[in-house]
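Handoff note, outgoing to incoming analyst
You'll be picking up this chain. Sequence as last confirmed:
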Amino acid sequence: MVTYETERLILSSPRPEHEAELLKLHNDPRVQEVIFNNVPQTLEDVRKWLDWFWARWHKNGFGDWMVYEKTDEGPIFIGRSGLRDYDGTNNLELVTVLAEHGRRRGLGLEARRFGVTHALQNSTKEKVVSVIRHGNVPAERAAKKLGLRYVDDRWYQGKFWQYYEMTRQEYFVQPHHQVTGKRGYTCTGRVV
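Most recent structure output, in case you need it:
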């Protein structure tokens, strides 16, 4: 297992012990609406997701992270965030899925920044892209805060989505990729 810490988060690579947390996350009403078209998710669905996450980690050395908020009572699972290969290109797709209690406090942006920094530092990928469902205003705002820009609408998985992108160079000229955490993202990482 690979684990990193930022100022407010603990991010770890996925493992079988995450089944129950992911099942709860994937059945969060907003997550079901935006990602799963209001179809309830089963434990078998979650196991398929975990297998898929592991395949991405095995191929790239990074992928979706399980995201925990640091609290005085201990870490609290708030969602998943990470990057994966985008449609056979040399680009990475950024995906963040947060439960209700993890939204609207900047935690998703912190997780996204960590994920993008880590993936770009550990790959030769050229761009980070995000495909966002029309009407998902929080995801649009988060993409813009991170530095992605709207390009156009594109056909993806059977429907039109808003397509945002940012080049590697555009990301690394911005100072935000170095800011969170006591000694930076890569310095606080540990392999457990």
